[in-house]
């Protein structure tokens, strides 16, 4: 049945999506750094006329890093590791290659157009679901094409049992499909009338409290199925591959996976604590957020224990460093989230900068680190060249680690300061601070955050440069490296 | 073992995931849906001008920095007014609660800010509130609000969700042309309280600058 000859995998799609990951990563983080600077130095709002205000750029930052950078990274790694764990080459099916390329081009053009639409203020206004209905349809088409790609590859697989990473990619596909469809349900007003007004405008199928519930069921779980599930899928593949160590525990993987699938979605309503959604929903959201620590830490601990007895690799191989730090930040972020979801803590934390602080220790420390590590691992295998510079990787690692620490510590302090000032009362029970006092006091933290942004962005440029040089000037490899990625 | 079998049968594996991830939404969102969709007694939906203002609010991303959700704490009711009720949002599509208060809550801003305050503030926030980091939105004084789209929105929600707009709200161009005079009259009432001559001239010509619609919307937040 199975021949012993090594399969020749087709990496053309993985390469294309890798380029997009780097492109969108740079753009998204650049805009992120700009809007961070705008909060410290408001004059920077006027660089582009009406198109350059914080409020226009912020959705571009979030959508570019979510639907540009992260989704490209998910696609790139899928088209690399999907073939390898299923033991089948993309090149074996012309159909799957066509579907994959179609997915790439529709995605690329669609993402660019959608970004321009946000710049012009065409926005449905629901967070991470700002795209108006025509762009939502593009997202659906891309997602369906990816689904066909996954199912197709699974259909022609040689390895019968699905490896853990495939569980996570499948869950990512199914979860996002469900969430995105339901949250973006809307009626285009132009087509519901005799062609009155703008063709791009639509109204949500849900109103008020219901809309908020659906949105945060989506918003929270877009994080689940975009920023957690596929990234866990990546580390389950790349950490054992890079370290040469087998996954510590199959049972722990099983528990973490099914636990995550069941628990995560309940926690969405913790975004709506103290709002007008019924108390029992808020309590459910709160309680399930705490339970969520179990499957989250289950995966992270499984990863750390995979390195058992091989911790020397941490000092020798910067790639292992990136992945171990990613797991660690995953643990930090998944304990911080449940703390913020406790109702009394949330009363202070909600609406403050502690929330973006939490998001960023998760995404900068976990998601981006893991995706970069994956690309570092894939590049020598896709381009058949050694990584260009180990030294630069080390420098990048420390630069970005410093940046993440500066980011979240400054935002923790900013958030708690603001939350406490909003509620501070004097001895007679009167509010002590006007709102503007709670804004001006944050200036130093916004400056620190901007510095963090610049450092992180610099690190990302070093990463991009390192990959570019690997492609063009890395030492040519005659044989595919088995475990540890070769680097100069 | 069951899981080993499952991992060899992708169809059942995918089905199992789908079932497991569906629970939460079904149990948390569906049972309360009809109740949460109810408006307060006698609540009127927004006028077309106010809807156009809401669309300016969305276009310029006001909700990225301002919430519309007053939580039931004394520190919030002292600062912003009565805490928010579910029924007050029943006609809001989308909801605009926001998730971050870089600036203050706006759910009842209509109770304590006036047309001329907004006019001055949108031109130069830091002059009205020293230390403010909010950008100026000068372009709202020259860009025109899309009142036709706002009308189409009112008609759409009337037909699809029975939002109580009157019989004159029909999806035809003739009905829109008839209703437009009402929108312009509302705009003129706002412009009368403003100082900016270009805005006044535009409204006199039958045009509605974004700022006029936006102020109408902000004034309606009570």
What's the structural blueprint in terms of helices and strands?
The complex is a heterodimer of chains A (488) and B (222).
Chain A: H1 12-40, H2 54-86, H3 94-119, H4 133-155, H5 164-183, E1 186-188, H6 189-192, E2 202-204, H7 208-243, H8 250-263, H9 279-291, H10 293-306, H11 312-316, H12 318-340, H13 343-349, H14 354-383, H15 390-423, H16 437-440, H17 443-473
Antiparallel strand pairs in A: 1-2
Chain B: H1 2-7, H2 10-28, H3 33-36, H4 48-59, H5 74-80, H6 115-123, H7 125-128, H8 147-161, H9 173-192, H10 197-204, H11 210-220
Helix pairs in contact in B: 4-8, 4-11, 6-11, 9-10, 9-11
Strand order of the largest sheet of chain A: 1-2
Structural class of chain B: mainly alpha
The main pleated sheet of chain B reads as: none
Helix content of chain A: over 70%
Largest sheet of chain A: 2 strands, antiparallel
Overall pLDDT metric of chain B: 96
Helix content of chain B: 40-55%
How many strands in all of chain B?
A: 0
Instruction: Count up the helices of chain A.
Output: 17
The mean pLDDT of chain A is 96
CATH second-level architecture of the largest domain in chain B = Orthogonal Bundle
Structural features, described:
The complex is a heterodimer of chains A (488) and B (222). With 488 residues, chain A is mainly alpha-helical. Chain A is built from 17 helices and 2 strands. Chain A has helices at 12-40, 54-86, 94-119, 133-155, 164-183, 189-192, 208-243, 250-263, 279-291, 293-306, 312-316, 318-340, 343-349, 354-383, 390-423, 437-440, 443-473; strands at 186-188, 202-204. In chain A, strands 1-2 form a two-stranded antiparallel ribbon. Chain B has 222 residues and is mainly alpha-helical. In chain B, 52% of the residues lie in helices and 0% in strands. Chain B folds into 2 domains: 2-36, no CATH class; 48-220, Cytochrome c-like domain (Cytochrome Bc1 Complex, Chain D, domain 2), CATH 1.10.760.10. Chain B has helices at residues 2-7, 10-28, 33-36, 48-59, 74-80, 115-123, 125-128, 147-161, 173-192, 197-204, 210-220. Chain B starts with a helix and ends with a helix. The mean pLDDT of chain B is 96. The chains are: A mainly alpha (488), B mainly alpha (222). The interface between A and B is large, with 93 and 89 residues.
